[in-house]
Description:
- The chain is mainly beta.
- It has helices at about 1-10, 10-20, 225-230, and strands spanning about 25-35, 50-60, 65-70, 75, 80, 90-105, 105-115, 130-140, 140-150, 160-170, 175-185, 195-205, 210-220, 230-235, 235, 240-250.
- The protein is globular, with a radius of gyration of 17 Å.
Amino acid sequence: MKKILLSLLLIIGMTITHSQTFGSEGITGTVSIGTDYRPRGVSASQSLPAIQYGLNYASKNGLYVGMYNTSLTSITAEGLQERDYGDGSGIQSNIYSGYKTNVGPVKLNTGLVSILFVGNRNGTSNNYDTYAVYTDVGLGPVSFKFTDFINNFVGINNTSHSHYYELNFTQPLSDKVIAVTHIGRTSITNLTEISYTDINFGGIYLMNDGWSITGKYHTNKNYGSLFTTAYTYGGVKLYNNTFILSLNKSF
Length: 251
C-alpha cells in the first residue's frame, strides 16, 4: 500500500498543467491517447498507454471551469494489475476553476483544482483526494507557475503545503509545428527524499480538424535519496528516460 500511495504523488502534475491548456471561449474539449502517462516525469501508468479526456467552459470575462479525467494503472507486490488503485474506479477525476487575464503583455492565470480518486483510500481513514491552488505568469513564449497543495498530499500525514514550481517555454516554429520545453521541481513537505526535478522537451505537430501529435523526451535530475526506490515497481523503473508520443483531438 505504501508503494501504491507514493506512486500517486506523480499523478497530480498532469492535472495542474491541464487546467491552463484550454484557450477558447465557450465549451471546448480534448481527448488524448499516449504511449505513457508521465506527469512530472515519472510514469503513473507503469509505462503503459493511457487515455485522458476533459471538458472546459471559458467566459468572455476570463472565468473558466472544467473537468479532466485520466485512466490509472495499479500495482501490487506481484506486479502490474488492472487500472485501479485499491477498490476504486481506476479513474482520477479532476474539477477546476480559475480566472485568466492580461496585464499589458503579461498573461495571468490563477485557480483552484480538486484532484479526486473516487472510492480509493490510502489504507487509513484518509482519502487520496488532494486540493491545490495555482498561479501562472507568462510573458511571450515563457511562463512560470507555482502550485500549493493545500491539504495532506494524497492523504500522507504532515505533507500539507507541498509545492510544485515549473518553467515552461512554448514557441511556434511554423503554422504547423510548436516547440515546447518544461522544467519543474516537486517539493514534498517532510519528504525531501523523494523530491526531484523533471525535464521534458519536444514538439507538437498540428493537423486538420483539431487533431495533433505530441512528442516529448522526459528525464529527471536532482532527486532525493529514496527517489529511485519509491518509483520502482515490479522491476519497472518509472523514472527512466523515455520518449512519449500522444495523439490528441480538440473540439
